[in-house]
Design a protein that fits this description.
- There is one protein chain.
- This protein has about 325 residues and is α+β, with helices and mostly antiparallel strands.
- The protein has one domain.
- Helices cover about 25% and strands about 10% of the residues.
- It has helices spanning about 15-65, 90-95, 100-105, 110-120, 195-200, 310-315, and strands at about 70-75, 85-90, 160, 190, 190-195, 210-215, 235, 290-295, 300-305.
- It has a five-stranded mixed beta sheet. The chain has a two-stranded antiparallel sheet with strand order 1-2. A two-stranded antiparallel sheet has the order 4-5.
- Strand 8 (about 290-295) and strand 9 (about 300-305) form a beta hairpin.
- The longest helix is centred in the first third of the chain and has 52 residues, at about 15-65.
Length: about 325
């Protein structure tokens, strides 16, 4: 019998291994953008859901108070623009009972209720509490607290709309003629919240921003994006569609005016550091724009490329103009 020697093949050749590695690399290169897109989509959906929940909480507040909450309570005759100002609880604190945060609110309810009469600041004890619904998942800076005003202020990514007029002109909901010669009143201002009935008689709830995104400061001493602090840029947008802060995510070096905050235009956070907190536009890390909740509770995406005039129109409750498509 003739025996045939059969050699069993062991493993792959070097060329075959290189081909397999190359194929895997190509597949990974194709999959990564798809995975990233899915993650961005999921984060965007979560952010919009946060705004939806915040909108519901504000409307519940309206059911009881017959108007939206004030952007901030203050005991002085102008909106607070400096840390040394007399400033109290903001809109986000006032809606806590409607956001399943009733226990937190009750711990400081006496101070919250009495502040406007006696200046009680005990309410600030809640400042370090992180509220998940106030945090946009794409902003990794929102895990770092703000170090000013006693320190330990937890971050947040949503801001009441005080309108495109500057914050010091919105005390009690009044407003001057703004960038386009129109009124630029907001829906939540110092010691003032608009009623839905008033909105119906003005520009309409579906045409007016209620809450918009803001970014957390990129430095510990940047007060932008602080949920319980009622300042421009912290939890209020105001003075936008004006001057050097014309659009969402305005890239200009001195675009926002937020007291003491560093200017970081390379990261999309320009600021005029020496100014008091009187101007801030909507900002986010979503690609191409920001999410906003309108006064009727609907949530929309506003492009960075929106016309400045249209941005002004949807920010103002009383300009008397019909906004173009946005």
């Amino acid at each position: 019998m003739i025996q045939v020697n059969q050699r069993r093949r062991q493993g792959f050749t070097l060329i075959e291994l290189l081909v397999v590695i190359a194929i895997i690399a190509v597949l990974i290169g194709l999959l990564l953008p798809a995975v990233q897109k899915v993650r961005e989509s999921a984060a965007n959906a979560q952010c919009k859901n946060n705004l939806k929940q915040i909108g519901i909480a504000i409307h519940k507040y309206h059911e009881n108070a017959k108007r939206f909450p004030p952007a901030v309570l203050t005991r002085q005759a102008s909106s607070p623009t400096t840390e040394s100002s007399d400033w109290g609880p903001n809109w986000a604190v006032l809606i806590l009972p409607n956001m399943e945060q009733g226990n937190l609110y009750q711990q400081y309810s006496t101070s919250i209720a009495s502040y406007i009469n006696d200046g009680n600041t005990t309410w600030r004890g809640l400042r370090g509490t992180k509220i998940p619904t106030f945090l946009c998942p794409v902003d990794d800076q929102n895990q770092n607290n703000f170090t000013g005003a006693g320190g330990g202020w937890a971050r947040g990514n949503y801001a009441a709309n005080a309108g495109p007029s500057f914050i010091q002109n919105t005390y009690g909901g009044t407003s001057d003629n703004g960038n386009f010669g129109w009124k630029g009143g907001g829906v939540m201002c110092a010691n003032y919240g608009v009623s839905l009935q008033s909105l119906t008689n003005q520009d309409g709830s579906a045409n007016t921003i209620m809450v918009a995104e803001v970014r957390a400061g990129t430095a510990p001493n940047d007060r932008r994006g602080v949920w319980a602090m009622g300042f421009a840029g912290s939890s209020i947008i105001t003075g936008y569609a004006n001057g050097d802060d014309p659009l969402p995510n305005s890239p200009n070096d001195c675009s926002d005016d937020v007291e003491g905050a560093p200017s970081d235009p390379n990261n999309g956070m320009g600021n005029w550091t020496s100014c008091p907190s009187q101007q801030a536009t909507a900002r986010s890390l979503h690609s191409g724009g920001v999410n906003v909740a309108m006064c009727d509770g609907s949530v929309r995406f506003i492009s960075n490329n929106i016309a400045e005039q249209t941005y002004y129109q949807i920010g103002s409750r009383n300009d008397g103009q019909s906004p173009s498509n946005y």
